[in-house]
Amino acid sequence: MISDNLPPHDVEAEKAVLGSLLIDSEGIFKIAIFLRPEDFFNPENQWVYDACFSLYQRNEGINQITVAHELAQKGRLEEAGGAAYLSHLVSIVPTSLHVEHFAQIVSRTAVMRRLISAGSQITALGYEDDAEVDVALGRAEDILFKVRQRQSRQDFVPIRQILGQYFEEAGPVQPSGEEIPHVLTSFVAIDDILGGLQRSDLIILGARPSAGKTSLALNIARNTAVNQKACVALFSLEMSRQAVVQRLLSNEAKVDSRSVRLGTYTEKEERRIMEASGILSEAPIYIDDSPQLRVVEMRGKAQRLYRERTVDLVIVDYLQLIQGAARSESRVQELSEITRSLKALAREIDAPVLAISQLSRAVEWRSSHRPQLSDLRDSGSIEQDADVVLFISRDEMFVTEDDWKKAHDVEIEPYPRGIADIIIAKHRNGPTGEIKLRFVPKTAKFENLEAEFSAA
Asked: CB 3.0 to 4.6 Å from 297: which of 31, 62, 89, 138, for a disulfide?
């Protein structure tokens, strides 16, 4: 029922829900998953349901006596109409069989009210003269997303349905145009261990500066987009989109990155660059190089691209440059909120999110120079939220060839020039360990070296 000049509501449905609960307290188990006290339009009904919900949370029975006592405890019994109103609610409901139906009506009208509120907030954004267009659009999308998120709660799913989904996704890679079940990095050893980058996973890639973390992320973006036609959303908070494209061109054409940047390549190299440009132009890679991007804006942009076409991989370069909520008390708390938001994004769009992270200087002070989970800078809950944590370690960054010869038998352990150890420090659903890749500094490119895996 919707009265003139009032937002959508149905007081009769609200009363029917409450009366049903007072008749049969078991009804709360059917509706508590999606119906909240704030969904009720009438204040008195909201207070009564809040009392029922509180009793439910404490695993106590719901009836006229317990609800009246709970309302009295909260100082709202008389405001809610007293014991007489509770008796009235019981008298108007002959059966509790339809409690879920009436609860859905209350929930739906609550969503419509929130939608109206969201429209008012978006209208107010439009009147802000000093607001930047992209920021305003991001805020508007976030407002609408919160309305949708509030509505989309999942319930239990029978194992038969989940098994059906598993066997659909576990089959061979789908042809172009269909959803890609597993995003393959094309680095054989990494894909063997991880089974590819899994949908809804948050993957952290950490390393010290100049170790090649951005290069590896770009190599993965290229490989997935070119080899699988996977749609890649790349947030580059540090490098401009021109710099990103130049590095991708250097990788693809196998031309020195400095020559590509300065345009000092030979005619032969120019032909290779043109061929590389043709390959990359067909790759579904979308680059956003907005600096100082807030995590809310990032989620909004990723969701917008997801609505336009299926997103198969999100890459964030890099984690510590993302702006968190202004209300955060510390950078650690802020970063914790950011990683939780990125994990939520991975779940929302059902795609792996690969986030690059800096590491603390503790790596350089350690004699082995091997990264550890504790090295994640301003770590907060990075380790906890991540499904996979990868580190890059290159001995040649810390040990000269002469020093290496003094400590190793070079016949057995040659100097690791151009060798990168990829450390799988955390793998929620599989083994940890190390693999090796070749790193080509001139083109900042990683290549397969071996498919062997050293388990931890």
From this structure: 138
pLDDT digits (tens, 9 = 90+) for 115-164: 998 898 888 888 887 767 777 777 787 788 777 766 655 544 554 554 55
pTM, rounded to two decimals: 0.64
Phi, psi at 133, each rounded to 5°? -60, -50
| Cα–Cα distance, 93 to 156 (Å, whole number) | 29
Mean pLDDT confidence for 277-298: 81
Q: CA-CA distance, 334 to 348, in Å (whole number)?
A: 21
- Residue 4, classed as helix, strand or coil, is coil
Q: Are 22 and 89 in contact (CB under 8 A)?
A: yes
Phi then psi for 70, rounded to 5 degrees? -65, -40
Question: pLDDT confidence of 447, banded at 50, 70, 90?
Answer: confident
Range name among 70-84, 175-189, 348-362, 415-429 with the lowest pLDDT average: 175-189
Torsion of CA 253, 256, 257, 259, to 10 degrees: -100
**Count of CB atoms within 10 A of residue 371's CB?**
25
Rounded CA-CA distance 379/357 in Å is 9
Residue position matching structure tokens 């008012």: 120
Superfamily for the 1-155 domain: DNAb Helicase; Chain A (1.10.860.10)
Same fold across 1-155 and 174-455? no
Q: Which residue has the tokens 């059917």?
A: 30
Task: Tell me the pLDDT of the chain averaged across its residues.
Answer: 81
pLDDT at 152: 56
Element (H, E) at 392: strand 388-393
Residue 65 token pair: 């006596």
Nearest to 190 by CA among 421, 355, 435: 435
The pLDDT confidence band at residue 219, using thresholds 50, 70 and 90, is very high
Residue with tokens 């799988």: 424
The pLDDT-based confidence of 180 (bands split at 50, 70, 90) is low
Beta bridge partners of 393: 421
SS3 state of residue 71: helix
Q: Report the CATH fold assignment for 174-455.
A: Rossmann fold (3.40.50)
Dihedral over Cα of 243, 247, 248, 253: its sign: positive
Asked if 165 contacts 218 with a C-beta cutoff of 8 angstroms, the reply is no
Domain ranges of the chain: 1-155, 174-455
DSSP 178: S
Which letter, b or e, does each residue of 311-321 get, where b requires 16 or more Cβ atoms within 10 Å of its Cβ? bbbbbbbbbbb
- Residue corresponding to tokens 């939608």: 115
Read off the pLDDT band of 327 (50, 70, 90): low
